[in-house]
C-alpha cells in the first residue's frame, strides 16, 4: 500500500514540475457597465468554443488568464443584459477592455438561481442535476441543509437539532449511497465537525446535486447520487463576518475572507465558524414518558431535552498562487475543527442518557494544483490530503435518567434492567478513543481532442486506518488490539461529444472500483466469569466495474430533453464496516458492495415571456438496487443500529420543479417528489432470526412523497437608495411514511405521521454601509416534526442575524 501511495504522490509532483511547459499566453481583463454607468454584476464572459470563462464581480470587473494568443469571439450573457458578442484579438501579455451592454427585458432571480457559465454547463451535459446558488441567502439565519431540503427530489434527514446526525435521501437512495463533496473532495476527509451544516451559506458559491447518475470527475463511489459543494474562490479582496442568535440558546458565527495580489498572483482564502446550541427544545409523544414507580404504567409527559448541548469550531485556510502563467491554481492549505456533543438518547427516544457524550477534533493538510493547457489540449487538476480524526466516547456512569432529567432506574419486573450492570448508560463503561487516519488523492486529466470531443480520466485513492484504545475495559482484553483498515482505488474514463451546433451533447463513461479491507475485531462467547474474548480476522478484496452515459438535446432554444443511465457500484464505508461507538452503530466487516441500475429522463422548458421567466423541469427516475446497505435496529432493540445488505429494492418515481420570477424582485418556486421503493425479498435479523423486512413491502424509514414551495421578494432601494429588503416564506409537506420494516413494526409505531412546516423571515441591508440585519422564524406553528426512527426535531425557533462586510 505504501508503494502505491508513494507512486501517486510522485505523479502529483511530476505534474507540478511539468507546469512550466506552456505556450505564448496572455491575460484579458476589463469591466462591464450599463449605458447609464451602473456596473453589471454576475455577467458571464466566455471565449466561444473554449473552456475560458469568468463572471463579473461586485464592481463589474472580470479577468481571464493564460489565454493562447489568437482571435476569439467573446460572448456575454446574463439575466440582466441583452446577449452580446464581439471579436477580440489576444496578442500581448495583457489586454484591457471596457464593455457597454444593454438592459434585458427578461430577468431571472430566484431563491435557487440557475445561471450560465459553470452552472449552465453542468445542466447541459444531460445529468439529472439541480444547482443551488445561495445568492443573498447568506444574509439570513439559514443553514445549508435548509437549502438542500428545498430542492426537488432531495430530503434532508436529521435526527435532532444543531449538530445531530444528518442523512440525505435523493429519489429513494440515502445514507452513504449519497456522497458529499467539498470542491470535488469527499467530505469525510474533513472530520465530523466540518459537516454540510457547519459550512455557512456565505462560504458557498454553489451546490451541485446529481441524482442517481454521477459524472466521472466526482470519482467516489456515489451510487445514489452526489452533493458537491463549491466554495467561494473570489479573486477580489473581501472580508465579512456574521453572527446569529436564536432559540434554544443557539449561537452561530462565521467569517470569510480573500486576498489576492494582482501583480504576483499570491492568494489567500480563508474562513471559519463557531456553532453552539443547548438544543433544549420540548419533546412529547409515544416514546416520551416516565415510570413513576416500579411496575407502574408509563405516563406520557412533555419534556425538555436536557443533555443535548452541541458546540463546534473550525477554520480552513489556503495560500498559494492563482491565475499565473505556470498555474491556474497552486494552493497549500490546512483545516482544523473540533466538536463536543452531549448524547441525549440511543437510536430511539425510549432510552434516555444524562452523562454520555462525545468529543472529537480533526486536522487536515492539503495540496491542490490546477492548470488548463499544461500541455497542448491537456488540462490537469490534482488534490492530495492527509487527515487525522481523534474521537472519544465518554460513558462511565451507570445511572439512568428519565425524560424529567432525574436519575432513575428502569425495572424489568422487580430487578433493574440488565444494561445498568455494565457500568455505563449504553452498556459497559467506556472511554473509547478512536484515531482515524485518512490519505486521499484525486487526479483529473482532461484532453480536448478538438472543439467538440473531450476525454476525461480520473483517479481517486483513499486509504483508511483506525486505531482504538479504551482504558476502561480489562487490561488483557484491551491488549488484544483491534485492527481496522482499507484502501480503495476508483478509476474513471469518460468521452464527451458535442454535435449539431452544440445542441446535442453525449457523454459515455466507465468506472473501476478496487477495495482491500482488513479487520481484526474482538468477539465474545459466554457470560460473566466464563466469557471468552477472541480476535476475529476478516480480509476481503473486491473488484467491481460500472458504466453509463448521459445525453442532452436542445430541440429548440426553449426546450431541452435529457436522459442518463448508469450501472453503479457503492463500496461500504468505514463506519458501516467497523462501526462507531459514539453513534451506537455496530460493526459488520463482511458487508458487500451495493449495485444499482439507475435511469433518469427529464425535460427543461423555458418559454419566452416578456418581463416574466418560467422554468419547468420534470424528471422520471428508476432505480434497481441489489445488496442495498441499510441500517436497522439489531434484534429489534432500540439502542443500537447495524448496517446490513438487505437484498433487492426496485424504485420508480418522478420529481418536478416549477420556477417563476417577475423581473428581479418576485420569485416563486414549487417542487415535489413521489416514488415507490419496494423490497423484493425477506431479510432476517442475524441476531434474533426475526424478519426485518418482508417481500413486497415498502422501504422503511424513507419519506416517499414531499412538496416544497418558496415565495421570495427582493426589493432594492425600497426605503432609501442603495438599500435591500428581503422577505421569504417556505412551506414543506412530508407525507406519512413507514417507520420500520413490517417485520418489526409495533402497535402505534408503524408510521411516522404527515408533517407540515412553515418558515419565514425578513432581511434588510442598510444603504451606504455593508451591514445587514435579518429575523427568521423556523417551524412557525410549532409542529411536531420527525425524521430518522421518529426522533423529534426542534419546534418553533426565532433567530436574529447580523452580517457586516468590512470590504
TrEMBL record:
Keyword DNA-binding among UniProt keywords: no
Keyword tags: Cell outer membrane, Membrane, Receptor, Signal, TonB box, Transmembrane, Transmembrane beta strand, Transport
Membrane topology: Multi-pass membrane protein
Gene3D superfamilies per the UniProt record, alphabetical: Carboxypeptidase-like, regulatory domain, TonB-dependent receptor, beta-barrel domain, TonB-dependent receptor, plug domain
Domain of life: Bacteria
Signal peptide limits: 1-23
GO annotation, biological process: siderophore transmembrane transport
Record keyword Transmembrane present: yes
TonB-dependent receptor-like beta-barrel domain ranges (all copies): 490-780
Pfam families membership: CarbopepD_reg_2, Plug, TonB_dep_Rec_b-barrel
TonB-dependent receptor plug domain ranges (all copies): 122-226
Location relative to the cell: Cell outer membrane
InterPro entries: Beta-barrel_TonB (IPR000531), Beta-barrel_TonB_sf (IPR036942), CarboxyPept-like_regulatory (IPR008969), Plug_dom (IPR012910), Plug_dom_sf (IPR037066), TonB-dep_rcpt-like (IPR039426)
This protein's GO CC annotations: cell outer membrane
GO molecular function annotation: siderophore uptake transmembrane transporter activity
PANTHER family reported for this sequence: HEMOGLOBIN AND HEMOGLOBIN-HAPTOGLOBIN-BINDING PROTEIN 1-RELATED, TONB-DEPENDENT OUTER MEMBRANE RECEPTOR
Similarity-based family: Belongs to the TonB-dependent receptor family.
Protein name per Swiss-Prot or TrEMBL: TonB-dependent receptor
Classification of source organism: Bacteria, Pseudomonadati, Bacteroidota, Flavobacteriia, Flavobacteriales
